[in-house]
Structures
1.
Amino acid sequence: MTFATLGLSPELLLAVAARQYTLPTAVQTEAIPAVLAGQDVMALAQTGSGKTAAFALPLLQRLQQDMEQDREEGSKEGSKQRKVKVLVLVPTRELSGQVGQTIEALAGHLPKKLKVAVIYGGASINPQMMHLRGGADVVISTPGRLLDLLDNNALSLQHVSTLVLDEADRLLDLGFADEIKRILEQLPAQRQNLFFSATFSPAVKKLALALLHEPKRIAIEDLT
Ligand code: ADP
Ligand code: MG
């Protein structure tokens, strides 16, 4: 299996080559076609197995297709307000930065520039509010600060088409279950859900079952 046979666009293949990824990892090989097809995904794979690109590459491809379609339909070029289409929840500030950098790098060759917003707590909220003016295509956030921004009407999640829970086990270990629940209430019911975790405790399983609809299961023996 190569990245090309997984159905990625030439621009994304360039980005992959620039990062010197020669072959897709196992989780990438399984997740990329499913995410491209719009399926929910539950992936259990160890740290370092390439989970970020497993969701970022296919989601970038779909965002690119959406933008091309908007252009064909003659949406106003001048309208700069972007709607959040992809929301990635991460447990820590450090991880929000890492995922943000990876997504920015992988998006680097796309013909239309995407706006990626990285949001985290433990830093002043005002610059993040300013950055979100005009919207964003992709938001990567820790749960608590996202709720603060939602309470301040700094962004809307009404147009999110894909939710990613990255490092779901750590999100739960850090006590974010209630925050995640409150965020879910603000998302459209009809959406794609992608769930990535390195471990699979009963709490992780419960969250996955509550969130996912007929997911493609990767490295999972039994989710029932
Ligand atoms: P995980 O989220 O599963 O812990 P990451 O997405 O952070 O893993 O990736 C771990 C490392 O592997 C990163 O340095 C990333 O750039 C690299 N990587 C990801 N995919 C590939 C690939 N297909 N080939 C080589 N390196 C890769
Ligand atoms: Mg990861």
2.
Amino acid sequence: AVILAIETSCDETSAAVIRGGKEILSNVVSSQIEIHERFGGVVPEIASRKHVESITLIIEQAVKESGLALKDISAIAVTQGPGLVGALLVGIVAAKSMAMALEIPLIGTHHIAGHIYANELVHDIVYPSLALVVSGGHTELVLLEREGVFQIIGRTRDDAVGEAYDKVARALRLPYPGGPHIDKLAAEAEEAISLPRAWLEADSFDFSFSGLKSAVLAVINQTRMKRLELNEAALARGFQESVTEVLVTKSLRAVRQYGVKQLLLCGGVAANRGLRAALTDHCASAEVSLLIPPNSLCTDNAAMIGAAAHLKLKRKQFSDLDLKGDPGLSLEQWSVSY
Ligand code: ATP
Ligand code: MG
Ligand code: FE
């Protein structure tokens, strides 16, 4: 079966054609980063308008690059949530009109299920599996007892990892999005400024990054006030080490507790070199296989939405044509039914 998938939840307009839930026939992504860069973050009104301007072209291009015709498409998938409500709406309207015109099913898809199932486009997921989702808006440990069934066993209580990276970068006056810049600075550092780690309760798989962020801002303010030179690289490395140690330790504890053989890393922060290296080491010692999609499938794209939607297509669990965008859509409730 062939799915045409659409993703417009944030600042990427994307369309993809996926065969059999695994094979990417096309995956066209148009990023608005340059437009939002000068505001230091995504401006929702502008994001929606840009999606409207490009969506038709992006879909046409995805179909063209797939080498297939519209009649070959079996279903339309679209991100239903979470995301910016106005941005989601643009994708949903386009998806509905195509589903209606082509008289094929519509599949409203969860954005984070997409990030997780990006792994299925390049690897084979073995159940039970555990996903570490680290993105701009989410930091979650998700247990998959079986295919398409999601259970969140840990989540951030305040900032998402990507958000913390972006805020720290902003305080260091680095360009948006700041994650890659902090990553690069940290790699160049010769030493690390020691910063706190938020472990929370001993048995908790939850995360908290706002205390760490405040600690970083305090260091920056103090050095500026005392007119001292700030060792930015050492600060970036200290921040990255704190984030990485907590993510890795909690993920591996969850791996042992739930007896899974596989850890799936996903979301935009999966591109982080410090995190990849630490997870690679620890998973090797624990004899757990670590799956990471290529960077192009870690950041927002429609191919991952097609991969997640395939779970529902296989079971003929379709959405109604009055589907609405839902900024707070629950991952667990989106699970497939058996
Ligand atoms: P969500 O999926 O939660 O709705 P999003 O789609 O906006 O959020 P992604 O596109 O998955 O988020 O990821 C973007 C985030 O990843 C940004 O915060 C960015 O700074 C961060 N990021 C990208 N590369 C790196 C890196 N090398 N190191 C750390 N963070 C990074
Ligand atoms: Mg984005
Ligand atoms: Fe995302």
3.
Amino acid sequence: MTRIDDLPVRDELRGKSPYGAPQLDVPVRLNVNESPYPMPEQLVRRIAERVSDAARTLNRYPDRDAVVLRTQLADYLTRTTGHRLGPNQIWAANGSNEILQQLLQAFGGPGRTALGFDPSYSMHPLISRGTGTGWISGPRTAEFDIDTEAAVAAIHEHRPDVVFVCSPNNPTGTAVSPETVLALYEAAQAASGGPGALVVVDEAYAEFSHRPSLLSLIEGRPTLVISRTMSKAFGAAGLRLGYLAADPAVVDAVQLVRLPYHLSAVTQATAHAALEFSDTLLGYVEELKAERDRLVVELRVLGCEVTESDANFVQFGRFADPHDVWQRLLDHGVLVRDNGVPGRLRVTAGTRQENDAFLDAVRAVMKENN
Ligand code: PMP
């Protein structure tokens, strides 16, 4: 049998495995920060209508610039953050992973580096590797916050071309203050010694935060980019629709690397329909925020150490052997995530019933431990 390593693949891919959490068929799946709510039936019908319309012209390539969709996304951000944006400041792609990949294709690449603050979203280093961008792991405090002074020092030391700030951060749930983002942005500009470095604020979980979005910071800062997704707050992980907000020049730059017609007409039509239902979908976000806050409280009552969360998931521990706890929760029918953070696991907020099942399983596992 031929294996990957028998092929003439790039050296940096040898011995590596693909990214991905196990997709196991268990009763309670709280491992990949999905929404537990199916799309409402009215929206399903609206999607069917819009996709039917799109189907009539599938003989043609889709709108390569996705103008209608980008206009709607700009309106959504303007409405929910109070910061006015136009479609020329928005770009959309197949999930925010593709957004991040396009950014690294345009602003990273061989001979360039990206810096992030670990533990954070593990696709940041993986997409860097995939685009030939060097990866530098920056520091975080014991409470999983970004220590502004230490972070600024790391930027001055390494002079990266791209800086990733994930807020709220996956997998820890911690949000970053606007003051810290500004300090990192200024350090990145000063350290670059050239036209500046790109600072990418990954706001995949922004809608779940107790704090306002960092979006308004892009004003007057042409190398600050906000990345967003419909996978989490819109409960549409299966849709694959991510987007960015930035200076129009950044939007022009990613168009140099995007594949032509990358966003299918079916995707554009479906996203359009989901955006028409954004108020309904944001109602689910409010329920999930309340459930997330309940998980933090209840896990503490059970004796866990819990990191404050601004996302739709909660990091909890501490366990001598988190993988063993992960397995025993799975034995109770509950799938959570072991992100490899020492002593910790991560649980996504589900429905009230799912969260109760999870808390019962934690209670049982803690009892077995004593
Ligand atoms: N950024 C962060 C921080 C994430 O956690 C995720 C999803 N796990 C993504 C980006 C990518 O999401 P998508 O490609 O579904 O938009």
